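Students often ask why inverse folding is considered easier than folding. One informal answer: many sequences map to the same fold, so there is more than one right answer. In these notes we will look at a single instance of the problem. The structure comes first.
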């Protein structure tokens, strides 16, 4: 769903503003293709342009991806202005970054709010506030004196800090020595950016940022874990990032990072069976239904497969139709093709191929 005014998208497209890449896509009715705003191709007449909030929406509207800007083959990197904000916050997570700060570095607060809401499921202000309070929770758990934490996070009083902390974590800071929260971070990948989340026990989310179910997944996490979700990182997320790099390089065929994935007994049974599917292999929905002891529950297996919150690591992409056709995939069939191609060493889509476990541009003959 788009919240940008048309004149803003027209201007971004006309100036090839790469900071809008991933925010919207433009479909060209005269050619039937869709592009990133930064596409170097000749710009169409406004009357021949339609705008979409995701590549998925553009595909469903009947447009095919542009071969010049390759909107389906994102490198997973946020726009430069977003990266600047993320870097600033990580260097000083206890700082305060209001609208005045954004304007001082020539970033429109409304644009930051839209981007962070779309990508992280929270506004920029909520993100920076969550990062600040998440850091305070980590310090409290490590035994820091409460006075030092309050002063170090820019609060003028204990009451102000306590109110903000309690609202985020559900209990006052003095009772939070053993409090756990869900920390969430951005991970770049060859098939687009992912959001990863983890508790102290393990990874609980790995999802593509452009997936429509992302907001629902966060809602499920809050309900299942009864914990606050804040930006940050822990040892499980560090391990996950390393293992994902190795996986996409073709050197890792099995993940070892700790996982936590509470669900209904049936869902958990399906997800555990997914973890047993070998690298490079595929099974059918019928196979999974038999393995969980419910051979007639094929449709329910498909639903549980689609509700998997830990993409790639819990390999729901290895489940296909009985006929061998790919079936569905929440992250998009193009990603499913890529992942299976990566694991099987086959060409995955036009213009690219997997060579020695790596995604490479196909050489022209």
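Output (designed amino acids):
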């Amino acid at each position: 769903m788009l919240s940008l005014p048309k004149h803003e998208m027209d201007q971004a497209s006309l100036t090839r503003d790469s900071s809008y890449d991933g925010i919207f896509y433009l479909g060209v009715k005269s050619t039937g293709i869709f592009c990133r705003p930064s596409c170097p191709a000749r710009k169409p007449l406004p009357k021949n342009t339609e705008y979409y909030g995701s590549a998925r929406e553009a595909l469903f509207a009947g447009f095919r991806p542009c071969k010049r800007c390759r909107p389906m083959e994102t490198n997973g990197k946020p726009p430069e202005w977003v990266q600047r904000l993320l870097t600033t916050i990580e260097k000083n997570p206890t700082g305060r970054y209001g609208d005045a700060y954004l304007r001082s570095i020539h970033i429109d607060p409304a644009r930051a709010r839209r981007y962070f809401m779309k990508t992280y499921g929270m506004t920029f202000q909520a993100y920076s506030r969550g990062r600040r309070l998440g850091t305070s929770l980590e310090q409290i758990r490590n035994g820091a004196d409460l006075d030092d934490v309050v002063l170090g996070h820019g609060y003028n009083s204990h009451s102000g800090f306590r109110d903000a902390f309690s609202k985020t974590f559900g209990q006052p800071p003095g009772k939070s020595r053993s409090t756990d929260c869900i920390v969430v971070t951005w991970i770049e990948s060859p098939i687009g950016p992912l959001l990863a989340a983890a508790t102290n026990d393990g990874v609980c989310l790995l999802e593509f940022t452009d997936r429509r179910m992302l907001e629902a997944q966060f809602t499920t996490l809050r309900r299942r874990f009864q914990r606050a979700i804040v930006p940050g990182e822990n040892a499980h997320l560090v391990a996950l990032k390393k293992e994902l790099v190795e996986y996409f390089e073709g050197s890792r065929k099995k993940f070892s990072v700790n996982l936590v994935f509470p669900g209904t007994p049936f869902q958990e049974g399906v997800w555990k069976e997914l973890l047993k599917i070998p690298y490079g292999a595929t099974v059918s929905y019928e196979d999974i239904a038999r393995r969980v002891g419910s051979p007639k529950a094929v449709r329910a297996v498909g639903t549980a497969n689609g509700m998997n919150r830990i993409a790639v690591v819990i390999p729901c992409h290895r489940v296909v139709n009985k006929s061998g056709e790919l079936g569905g995939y929440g992250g998009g069939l193009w990603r499913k093709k890529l992942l299976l191609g990566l694991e099987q060493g086959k060409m995955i889509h036009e213009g690219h191929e997997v060579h020695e476990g790596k995604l490479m541009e196909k050489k022209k003959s």
